[in-house]
């Protein structure tokens, strides 16, 4: 009887050991899987979440040029206010604004006043791509005014003048520019009339 009991106890002990080992393996397996999920899935989720938050802001900031408008929107707005020979040249003003920060509404307003293009561009603008009455060489038909190979070149030359001698010196409105730029006291009023039209368009 004792021998039989000893045999039964041995079997039970063996079963308990096997059960314990199996349970230990199962616990460790689940633990390892949990660690893998934490190490792999959670960082991946957080990374994607950050990307989704940053990308739209970055993309938006890169495209805005002026007054909450993208390059395409600003160009379209300027083109509505550029006439005759200057029609479709909004892209040159937009590009200059994107590079320097010069107010494109102010630039187009002054150009419209200088060239008279709303009613038909000046001779200098038509024949020599000179939109600001800039003097220099090569000469426009033998006179003292400069001739440019293209409207883009003429526009950029004039915007360089406005930027260097006025905008970059803190003269950033028609009022601030008037005394240095023009003798006429009505110049500010005329420029601002164009400005408000452009802004509202």
Intertermini distance:
109 Å
Specify the overall morphology.
rod-shaped
Low-confidence residue ranges: 29-61
Overall CATH architecture of the largest domain: Orthogonal Bundle
Q: What's the average pLDDT?
A: 81
Q: What class would the helix/strand composition place it in?
A: mainly alpha
Q: Please state roughly what percent of the residues sit in beta strands, choosing from under 5%, 5-15%, 15-25%, 25-35%, 35-45% or over 45%.
A: under 5%
Order of the strands making up the biggest sheet: 1-2
| Tally of individual domains | 2
Description:
By secondary structure, the protein is mostly helical. It has two domains: 1-64; 67-200, Lysozyme (Orthogonal Bundle), CATH 1.10.530.10. The chain has eight helices and two strands, in the order αββααααααα. The protein has helices at residues 2-63, 71-79, 90-100, 104-115, 123-128, 151-165, 174-181, 187-200, and strands at residues 64-66, 69-70. The chain has a two-stranded antiparallel sheet with strand order 1-2. A hairpin with a 2-residue loop joins strand 1 and strand 2. Helix 3 packs parallel to helix 6. The model is unreliable at 29-61 (pLDDT under 50).
Fold blueprint:
Layout: H1 2-63, E1 64-66, E2 69-70, H2 71-79, H3 90-100, H4 104-115, H5 123-128, H6 151-165, H7 174-181, H8 187-200
Antiparallel strand pairs: 1-2
Helix pairs in contact: 2-3, 3-6, 4-8, 7-8
Write a concise synopsis of the structure shown.
This protein has 201 residues and is an all-alpha fold. 68% of the residues lie in helices and 2% in strands. It has a two-stranded antiparallel ribbon.
